[in-house]
Amino acid sequence: MNQTRTLLMFALLAVCYMLWQAWEQDYGPHPLNETATASSSTAAGGNATPGAAPAIASGSADGAATAQLVTVSTDVLRLTIDTRGGSVVRSELLKYPVAPRTKKDPDPAPIRLLDDGSNDYFAAQSGLVSADGAAPDHRAVFQSAQTSYTLADGQDALNVDLTWTDPSGVKVVKRYTLHRGSYVIDLDQQIDNGSSKTWDGNAYRQLQRVDRPAPVYSNFLQRISDQSRFGFFGAAWYSPEQKFNKLAFDKFEKEPLQNQATGGWVAMMQQYFLGAWIPPAKEADSFSSTVVNEPGSAAHYVIRSVGPQISVAAGQQASSTAQLYLGPKLPDQLQTIAPGLELTIDYGMLKIFAEPLHWVLAQLDKLTGNWGVSIILLVLLINIVTFKFTNAQFESAAKMRKLKPRMDALKERYGDDRQKTQQAMMELYKKEKVNPAAGCLPLVITIPIFYGLYYVLRDSVELRQAPFFGWIHDLSAADPFFVLPVLYTVVMLVQQWMMPTTAGMDPAQQKMMKFMPLMFAVIFLFFPSGLVLYYVVNGLCRLLQQWWVTRRSEAAPAKAA
Questions:
Q1: Residue 440: pLDDT band by 50, 70, 90 thresholds?
Q2: Which of 239, 240, 237 minimizes the C-alpha distance to 255?
Q3: pLDDT tens, position by position, 259-284
Q4: Exposure letters 419-431 (e unless 16+ CB within 10 A, then b)
Q5: Whether the Cβ atoms of residue 261 and residue 239 lie closer than 8 Å to each other
């Protein structure tokens, strides 16, 4: 088995898969928009979860009140809270710029995860609902003592209080607590029942967003080189019983979420970043999803968590707590925040290979401080582990190179009778103890690494904008000057020259083998540069090993004589 030819087959399958995904996004079925059926249309709050809580709808008496925006800044987050509903409507991740820093732009704008713009609308909302009493939902207007809060030097936590009062005597204080160096925000909704009767209601938390706008590309090649569009973009939820589940936007109408969970969470995912509501671990919540359709605007997708009933006697207090995560998909952090939250780093079916590769790279990066150098060290480690198997492959290839004159003679003897030629070849292989399939085992290792590393480079936020050296400023993006694809093509050409031509190969296969380096060059033009770096270094290691084995094999008869 020829390693290069088989690798080409898998690489072509990968490209076909990406082309199919691109076609699906452009021409495949899409979620229903504002013309969807009325059963999924509600006021901006969406429908209630049947049997779980009173209806969650828009506010009424407070609708005409004036709201304001409150800015909250820490060392890693800058939030904008709308006093209408006390919703977090913007979140900027200060450690993650939109574009790499350059001399022309040394301080690029930070990534905005939550956004109140119509094209990228994404908000984290919360509130209270009651069937027979006053309650502030995510449309009620709160009051804030300040319009700006900043975490001061030496301060570890920052509280932001929003207050809502009702003429009946019910008072609610919604408190957000932010922590230094953390993307976790604590939410405490404290209910002070100053009325003359018991207050009964439920607390809810929800994430509401629109589908991502269609990207604009100047050409088709730019389209297939954009790896971000292949990552999952949509809702997700987790429960200890049903584990991690994704809910694509085009499934909101067909397969709406209705589930009970204790110790779970709901989230909205995108490449590299995540927004998630995390109820208390021992709280039994109802998870649901809905689509909000309003004339003249894009569909809003809502995933919601509704807590159990809260009863507050007259003159008493009670509270409902939860956590809101707005930040990057960092596995070491996510697994300490909530069970299963690290599963939002979505490597798909290949996580069995991608997760170990990411862990090894992360450990190497702690030593080197450079993800590119870590990739090179990963290549060396894998080559050391597989040295015995690749050595057997190259020794078999060297023996076949020596046998080539005899193989050509057999081909000439039997002419066009391919069956007899193959039988004679197999007898020759058996006599000379040559195994033509010696390269299969290294391929069993190579192909999973190819796909696993592709997903790691595409979906690991640590590798986003991670520089290597020189012209490579982002290992998760394609090589801007195509240097690495050209280097890999040269390595392939040298390997092809050193490898013996398989006897019995028809002319069409031989022509294909000659064009393979060019085909690989085209394929790798649009792959993440970190993946191409891996294969350049791996190809050089294999080439050196192949040269050493071939030289030793050719020198063996002279020593024996």
A1: low
A2: 237
A3: 999 999 999 999 999 999 999 999 99
A4: eebeebbeebbee
A5: yes
Greater model confidence, 220 or 521: 521
Residue 511 main-chain phi, psi, to 5 deg = -65, -40
Q: DSSP label at 475? A: T
Strands 300-312 vs 199-209: parallel, antiparallel or unpaired: antiparallel
| 61 vs 127: CA distance, rounded Å | 16
Per-residue confidence band for 425, with pLDDT thresholds at 50, 70 and 90: confident
Q: Look up residue 120 and give its DSSP letter.
A: T
- pLDDT digits 0-9 by tens, 380-422: 998 898 888 777 777 777 777 777 788 878 878 887 777 888 8
The top-scoring range by mean pLDDT among 185-199, 398-412, 461-475, 544-558 is: 185-199
Q: How far is CA 433 from CA 75, 409, 430, 439, in A?
A: 66, 19, 5, 15
Distances (CA, A) of 321 to 84, 128, 282: 20, 12, 12
pLDDT, average across residues 519-534? 86
Phi, psi torsion values for 115, nearest 5 degrees = -150, 135
Burial of 355 (0-12, 13-18, 19+ CB in 10 A): middle
Neighbours of 41 (CB within 10 A): 18
How open is the CA angle 213-217-219, to the nearest 5 degrees?
A: 150
DSSP class per residue in 145-186: S-SEEE--TT--EEEEEEEEE-TTSEEEEEEEEEETT--EEE
Q: Cα-flanking dihedrals φ and ψ of residue 155, to 5°?
A: -95, 130
- Which domains are present in the chain? 3-16+358-555 (no CATH), 31-215+283-329 (2.70.98.90)
Q: What number of other Cβ atoms are within 10 A of residue 157's Cβ?
A: 12
Q: Which two tokens stand for residue 523?
A: 């394929």
Q: Determine how β-strand 157-165 pairs with β-strand 184-193.
A: unpaired
Question: What's the Cα-to-Cα distance from 458 to each of 4, 244, 270, 558, rounded to whole Å?
Answer: 24, 20, 12, 51
Confidence of residue 512 (pLDDT cuts 50, 70, 90): low
DSSP single-letter state for residue 141: B
